């Protein structure tokens, strides 16, 4: 429950501090006095967005701080999950700086607006006229039924599975699209891969082939040159080999005369040995050189194949062709891999659908059981509120679709009078009837939810007299198990509160300020009398106010 609220520099409020009781509190005031400002400030604490228009003085920051007693509401897990310090007396503070920047704190720890909004779901339900319109929406109707059916945990489990299911479905769609794309290119990729595979390419092969082609294509010239070299080296009269041997023989005759001749002889001998080896190598090369047109054709064909593949794939090396072949191979192989992935995902989806169907069946069973209980309790409350002939028809149908809260469709029909057909709530219920139905719904939900605080913002729209009196009694009954606030214009409801606050404006010079004060018993009599008769308070109005309070 909220124990206190402090507001500084917000809209028409300069500075306000107020403490709240844990029972049924009434807030009244003239139209435009600032009741909506109070709710706006509370909305900031609960995570609503704000801008510079919220600041009364644009040069100073706005601060809204609320204290909540939360010891009874098992919120420790929320604080742990959000890495926040848990305090039984939790303080939420919101600041809006003159720059427009907004900051939020829970027990002095900075938090995001989303965290604040999530926490607020456990703290306060602010009922406004807008929410009365939600009564005709299917999601809100399911919220009512599921609260009575105690479907909270099973819905949470269902939603976690549904998230996995949707991720799996999205993954399946992606993989199927990938497979479709790959299949479209599969035949062409296979053709390209097979073409490269058959080529049996090797790194460095192109250079070897080009060298071999040049040799085979010029075999006659090579043979002619080799023969000429051998003649120059081995000719009997004038051959280089014969002359070298004779050169060595003459030099050897000088060796006794000087060591330098000995050294020159050794060098000459080395040249002779090396040259002799060169001649032998040239002889072997000459023996191996012969015209081989078949080999030349094979080499030329392989080179032409390489050149053709390089042109097709727009590359210049055999290494690049080999890389392309490997990539094509992975694409060809990926078809079977994708098919295996798709099968695995389809199996996962089937398993998730089975689990979701089981949970949805449990959710449906709980709802079917809760519906008679809900209609019975609503009728009981609404009979007290002047609707003795009210009837509800709530039908569930199971669809083959996974919604966020199960597989059910809901039809929530209503009839206010005998002899009238059932109709859709928002089409056949008047504003006053909608207000009463919503109050009945809230009073029923109060028995099942553990929400600490509820604020009714003019839920009495469209009602008066004895009905208003009954509405006040219902809200007072609700306050036995939760903190209840009612912002009202009706004296019958105002008189039911345990405490009464008044919102009013004061004007000092050119400045208008909204204020909130806790009324004494005497002030309360005056306020209710004014609500009954206007500014000119009569004795009968005072007596009526006292009677209402008594």
TrEMBL record:
Limits of the RecF/RecN/SMC N-terminal domain: 1-508
Repressor is among the record's keywords: no
What keyword terms does UniProt attach to this protein?
ATP-binding, Coiled coil, DNA damage, DNA repair, Nucleotide-binding
Q: Which domain of life is it from?
A: Bacteria
> Cross-referenced Pfam families, in alphabetical order?
SMC_N
Q: Which CDD domains match?
A: ABC_RecN
Q: Which residues form a coiled coil?
A: 155-236, 335-362
The residues the entry assigns to the signal sequence are none
Q: What function does this protein fulfil?
A: May be involved in recombinational repair of damaged DNA.
Sequence similarity: Belongs to the RecN family.
Note the PANTHER family from the entry: DNA REPAIR PROTEIN RECN
Q: What is this protein called?
A: DNA repair protein RecN
Starting at the broadest rank, the lineage of the source organism is: Bacteria, Pseudomonadati, Bacteroidota, Flavobacteriia, Flavobacteriales
């Amino acid at each position: 429950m909220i124990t206190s609220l402090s507001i500084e520099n917000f809209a028409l409020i300069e500075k306000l501090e107020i403490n709240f009781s844990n029972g049924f509190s009434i807030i009244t005031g003239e139209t435009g006095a600032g009741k909506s400002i109070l709710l706006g400030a509370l909305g900031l604490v609960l995570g609503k967005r704000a801008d510079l228009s919220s600041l009364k003085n644009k040069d100073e920051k706005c601060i809204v701080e609320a204290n909540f007693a939360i010891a009874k509401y098992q919120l420790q897990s929320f604080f742990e999950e959000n890495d926040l310090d848990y305090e039984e007396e939790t303080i939420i503070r919101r600041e809006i700086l003159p720059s427009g920047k907004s900051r939020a704190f829970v027990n002095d720890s900075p938090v995001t607006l989303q965290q604040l909004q999530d926490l607020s779901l456990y703290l306060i339900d602010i009922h406004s006229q807008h929410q009365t319109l939600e009564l005709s929406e299917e999601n809100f109707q399911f919220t009512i039924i599921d609260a009575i059916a105690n479907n909270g945990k099973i819905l949470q489990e269902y939603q976690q599975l549904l998230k996995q299911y949707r991720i799996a479905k999205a993954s399946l769609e992606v993989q199927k699209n990938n497979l479709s794309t790959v299949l479209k290119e599969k035949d062409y990729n296979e053709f390209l891969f097979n073409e490269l595979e058959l080529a049996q390419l090797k790194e460095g092969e192109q250079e070897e082939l080009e060298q071999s082609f040049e040799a085979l294509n010029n075999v006659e010239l090579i043979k002619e040159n080799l023969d000429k070299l051998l003649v120059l080296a081995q000719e009997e009269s004038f051959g280089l080999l014969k002359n070298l041997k004779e050169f060595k023989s003459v030099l050897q005759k000088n060796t006794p005369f000087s060591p330098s001749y000995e050294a020159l002889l050794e060098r000459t001998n080395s040249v002779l040995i090396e040259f002799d080896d060169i001649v032998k190598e040239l002889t072997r090369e000459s023996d191996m050189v012969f015209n081989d047109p078949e080999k030349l054709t094979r080499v030329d064909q392989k080179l032409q194949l390489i050149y053709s593949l390089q042109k097709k794939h727009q590359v210049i090396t055999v290494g690049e062709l080999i890389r392309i072949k490997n990539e094509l191979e992975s694409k060809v192989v990926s078809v079977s891999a994708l098919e295996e992935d798709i099968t695995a995902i389809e199996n996962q989806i089937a398993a998730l659908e089975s689990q979701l169907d089981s949970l949805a069946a449990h959710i449906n069973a709980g709802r079917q059981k809760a519906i008679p209980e809900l209609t019975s309790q609503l009728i009981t409350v609404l009979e007290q509120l002047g609707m003795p002939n009210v009837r509800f028809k709530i039908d569930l149908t199971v669809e083959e679709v996974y919604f966020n809260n199960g597989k059910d469709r809901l039809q929530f029909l209503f009839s206010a009078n005998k002899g009238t057909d059932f109709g859709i709530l928002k089409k056949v219920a008047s504003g006053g009837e909608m207000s009463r139905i919503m109050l009945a719904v809230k009073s029923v939900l109060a028995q099942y939810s553990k929400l600490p605080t509820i604020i009714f913002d003019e839920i009495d729209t469209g009602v008066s007299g004895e009905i208003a009196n009954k509405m006040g009694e219902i809200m007072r009954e609700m306050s036995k198990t939760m903190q209840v606030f009612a912002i009202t214009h009706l004296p019958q409801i105002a008189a039911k509160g345990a405490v009464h606050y008044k919102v009013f404006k004061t004007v000092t010079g050119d400045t208008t300020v909204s204020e909130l004060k806790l009324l004494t018993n005497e002030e309360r009599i005056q306020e209710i009398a004014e609500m009954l008769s206007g500014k000119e308070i009569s004795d009968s109005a005072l007596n009526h106010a006292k009677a209402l309070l008594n």
